[in-house]
């Protein structure tokens, strides 16, 4: 046990010592070695960036570390860049100052300290020395051209000019001029020297403690110098001496406080430059307002005639060409005097003229106002090309076209809110008036004119040999109308819209325009001499908008005291009008073409313009769909249900259905016109693939509404057609058509009822072809087939059929099957094949064979059950004779053995 020493107790935790008992050495050892005093070097550098230059020696003497910091190039780089010598190309000023010996006397109130002489800091050790004494040719050596050495050189040269600032205010400028070398005696060089000295005394350099006071004195001297330059410029301007003007202008720009330090972007609005403002104010164009009157743009009939504004704008453009071209030649490009001059010209001259013009237009009415706004903007826009042409007079000027455009955009902004609001309200009113006018015409006539007054010869598309080709020609002509040039600025006419206005309004446009809309006459291509027309009444006068031709040959004979035009509108096919569609599209296009002029607007109004373009088209779709197309089809559908086939002698045609088919052709043409208009005019402004776009959604809604209206009308039309077919079959089928006398000759041709029914069906199905989509047409044909089967089944069950009459039934069923097959609807053709097979039950003589036929359900493809066929064979004339045999064979019945009722 002696070998083992006793264990000493060990403290598990070190004693807690309050911070105040820690030694100073412990504090120092925990500090990072990169700190200078309590602060990191980066913070010291930040302080040095804002420290006045006279405080540098005292800062350097604090410690070797602070002295070393003064060698950091970031400090001198910031001060060198503050002089903007390289961006402003002021190095030549330093070279000139260096070439002239200057007195070494220190400036008054010198606060440079040890910076007063070049070797004042020679007592500092080399690593921390701030000496501004350089070896020979040191500054010209590229190896020594650090930011520090470059700034030191500028400092030594510029501080020698500071004594001149201590003179009385009126002598400062002359003293500075005397200190400048001979190479700096020109106006431009003096201005550049003053600019450099001004930057030197700036807050970034702070070469002396009273830098701000000296800078204020220098600014006063520079303003006096600028005043002298302005006087020299005015004299040169009066003598048309562009060389002297250019020297004074460039010199003034050099010392302007708002000029940028990088020579590119001004720090203040260029319009604040005094020399540019004074020059612009003296242009005669600003004081000649009385020569032009905005009221001269209105004729005695209160219509627009912009010949007066054209003359006014010619004077404005001449002024831009003359004075603007001189501005770009004599003023610095960065001053943008041309743009400032154009802005003042636009706002003070053109803007005021337009304001007076629009005020007068507003008094005359909304449409005059809208046309005047568009025409005024188009006329003012001519200034853009004039500005660009003037800027091209100097190759150094690189003026962007958008800058010139912004001059007009900003000038016209005051009118945009009112204009865009009124444009939307204007199209609403125009659409409402068009729809109301049409509703009054149609409503008053439909109340008084019965269906019997309708004339099948009045159809247009249906009267053509090829309705589809006719429709294509109509759309082609409509497209040509859309491509007609649009004149926005009126010249001695009352319509802004020029050619297109003439195209849609009789007597207001050129011959070319009128003939263009005249080509929309479908009857001229159909070869049918019976021509008709679409007319409108606006309460003042009647104008033929969609001229179909002369209808004098189509006058109805009778005692009805009403015009032939009224009779035509009583037809269902005139519940829709291409004329109304054209008027709506024209009204929309007039507005669209006006708004399109502003489509290049930037910013807020650019968004508003695009929204307005979409809104006016949406309003047109709503008026076209809800107030014309849908109402027309709905009214036609209602009137078709009132038709009673028994009240009309005509059997092969159903007048309301024919008119409805014409209505479908018109509706389809309207939809195609809307599509063409959309593709030509709206597509450039929207993304057609964006299904969330309001225009795309509204257009789809319009198309769906038209499809639904056509489908609903076709449903009623199908019922009407099949009622007519059933009426034909009932009335044209003789009582013993299928039960002829035994001695009657056998004719295997179809009956008259069958022939006329097929003729009626063929005509109507053919007329519908090409007026709607294949899907809708197939549905119509399928519905016709299904209802025809039902009619024929009921018709057969009403007859008494003999064996010889059975062949007549088969002949009729074969004829119906041939017709249905021509429709090319496979499902219905199969149904009629089964119906045709059913006719065989009337020509089988043996009752047992007949029973086997009835039981053979596969014979009819499962379309008929035995009990269904049993109902048909009951219509046989010999049914009483064969009934028991058929029943026994079908149901295995024996009446003698099984019957318990005697």
TrEMBL record:
Recorded hits in PANTHER family, A to Z, give: RECYCLIN-1, SEC10
- Annotated organism of origin: Amanita thiersii Skay4041
Specify the F-box domain's residue ranges.
Answer: 39-77
Q: List the Pfam families hit by this protein, alphabetically.
A: F-box (PF00646), Sec10_HB (PF07393)
UniProt cross-references to InterPro entries, sorted A to Z: F-box-like_dom_sf, F-box_dom, Sec10-like, Sec10_HB
In its UniProt record, which GO terms are filed under biological process?
exocytosis; Golgi to plasma membrane transport
Q: What is this protein called?
A: F-box domain-containing protein
Residue span, Exocyst complex component Sec10-like alpha-helical bundle domain: 307-883
Its ancestry begins with: Eukaryota, Fungi, Dikarya, Basidiomycota, Agaricomycotina
């Amino acid at each position: 046990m002696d070998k083992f020493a006793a264990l000493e107790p060990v403290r598990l935790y070190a004693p807690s010592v309050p911070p105040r008992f820690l030694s100073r050495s412990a504090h120092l050892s925990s500090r990072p070695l990169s700190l200078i005093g309590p602060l990191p070097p980066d913070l010291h550098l930040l302080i040095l960036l804002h420290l006045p230059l006279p405080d540098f020696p005292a800062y350097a003497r604090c410690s070797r570390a602070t002295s070393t910091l003064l060698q950091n190039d970031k400090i001198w780089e910031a001060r060198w860049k503050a002089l903007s010598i390289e961006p402003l190309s002021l190095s030549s000023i330093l070279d000139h100052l260096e070439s002239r010996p200057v007195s070494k006397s220190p400036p008054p109130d010198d606060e440079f300290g040890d910076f007063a002489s070049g070797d004042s800091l020679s007592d500092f050790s080399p690593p921390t020395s701030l000496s501004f004494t350089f070896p020979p040719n040191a500054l010209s050596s590229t190896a020594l051209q650090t930011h520090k050495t470059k700034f030191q050189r500028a400092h030594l040269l510029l501080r020698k000019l500071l004594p001149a600032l201590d003179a009385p205010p009126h002598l400062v400028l002359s003293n500075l001029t005397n200190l400048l070398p001979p190479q700096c005696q020109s106006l431009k060089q003096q201005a550049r020297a003053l600019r450099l000295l001004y930057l030197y005394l700036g807050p970034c350099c702070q070469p002396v403690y009273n830098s701000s006071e000296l800078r204020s004195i220098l600014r006063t001297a520079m303003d006096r110098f600028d005043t002298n330059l302005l006087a020299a410029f005015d004299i040169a301007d009066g003598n048309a001496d562009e060389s002297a003007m250019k020297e004074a202008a460039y010199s003034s720009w050099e010392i302007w406080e708002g000029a940028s330090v990088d020579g590119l972007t001004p720090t203040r609005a260029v319009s604040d430059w005094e020399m540019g403002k004074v020059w612009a104010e003296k242009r005669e164009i600003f004081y000649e307002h009385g020569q032009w009157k905005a009221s001269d743009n209105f004729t005695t009939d209160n219509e627009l005639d912009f010949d007066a504004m054209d003359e006014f704008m010619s004077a404005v453009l001449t002024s831009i060409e003359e004075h603007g071209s001189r501005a770009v030649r004599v003023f610095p490009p960065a001053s943008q005097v041309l743009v400032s001059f154009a802005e003042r010209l636009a706002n003070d001259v053109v803007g005021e003229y337009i304001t007076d013009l629009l005020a007068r237009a507003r008094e005359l009415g909304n449409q005059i106002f809208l046309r005047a706004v568009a025409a005024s903007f188009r006329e003012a826009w001519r200034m853009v090309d004039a500005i660009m042409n003037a800027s091209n007079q100097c190759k150094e000027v690189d003026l962007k076209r958008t800058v010139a455009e912004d001059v007009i955009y900003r000038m016209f902004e005051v009118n945009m809110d009112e204009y865009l609001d009124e444009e939307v309200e204007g199209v609403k009113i125009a659409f409402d008036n068009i729809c109301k006018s049409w509703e009054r015409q149609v409503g008053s006539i439909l109340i008084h004119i019965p269906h019997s007054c309708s004339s099948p010869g009045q159809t247009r598309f249906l009267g053509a040999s090829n309705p589809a080709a006719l429709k294509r020609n109509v759309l082609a002509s409509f497209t040509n109308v859309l491509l007609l040039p649009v004149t926005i600025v009126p010249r001695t006419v009352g319509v802004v819209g020029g050619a297109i206005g003439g195209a849609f309004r009789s007597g207001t446009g050129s011959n070319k325009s009128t003939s263009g809309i005249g080509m929309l006459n479908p009857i001229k291509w159909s070869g049918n001499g019976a021509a008709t027309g679409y007319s409108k009444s606006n309460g003042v006068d009647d104008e033929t908008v969609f001229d179909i031709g002369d209808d004098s040959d189509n006058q109805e004979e009778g005692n009805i005291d009403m015009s032939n035009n009224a009779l035509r509108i009583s037809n269902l096919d005139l519940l829709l009008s291409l004329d109304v569609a054209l008027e709506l599209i024209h009204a929309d296009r007039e507005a669209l073409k006006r708004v399109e002029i502003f489509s290049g607007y930037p910013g807020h109004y650019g968004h508003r313009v695009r929204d307005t373009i979409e809104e006016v088209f949406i309003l047109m779709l709503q008026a076209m769909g809800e107030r014309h197309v849908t109402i027309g089809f709905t009214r036609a559908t209602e009137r078709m249900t009132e038709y009673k086939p028994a009240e009309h002698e005509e059997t092969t045609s159903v007048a309301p259905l024919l008119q409805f088919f014409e209505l479908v052709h018109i509706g389809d043409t309207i939809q195609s016109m809307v599509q063409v208009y959309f593709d030509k005019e709206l597509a450039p402004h929207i993304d057609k693939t964006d299904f969330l776009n309001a225009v795309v959604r509204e257009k789809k809604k319009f198309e769906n509404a038209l499809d639904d209206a056509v489908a609903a009308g076709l449903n009623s039309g199908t019922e009407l057609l099949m009622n007519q077919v059933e009426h034909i079959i009932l009335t044209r089928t003789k009582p013993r058509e299928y039960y002829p006398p035994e001695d009657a000759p056998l004719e295997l041709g179809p009956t008259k009822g069958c022939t006329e029914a097929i003729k009626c069906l063929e005509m109507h199905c053919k007329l519908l072809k090409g007026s709607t989509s294949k899907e809708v047409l197939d549905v119509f044909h399928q519905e016709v087939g299904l209802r025809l089967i039902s009619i024929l089944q009921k018709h057969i069950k009403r007859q008494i059929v003999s064996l010889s009459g059975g062949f007549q039934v088969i002949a009729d069923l074969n004829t119906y099957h041939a017709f249905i097959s021509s429709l090319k609807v496979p499902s219905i053709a199969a149904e009629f094949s089964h119906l045709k097979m059913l006719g065989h039950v009337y020509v089988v003589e043996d009752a047992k064979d007949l029973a086997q036929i009835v039981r053979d359900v596969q014979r009819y493809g499962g379309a008929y059950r035995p009990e269904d066929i049993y109902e048909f064979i009951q219509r046989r004339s010999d049914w009483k004779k064969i009934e028991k045999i058929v029943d026994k064979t079908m149901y295995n019945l024996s009446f003698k053995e099984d019957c318990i009722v005697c």
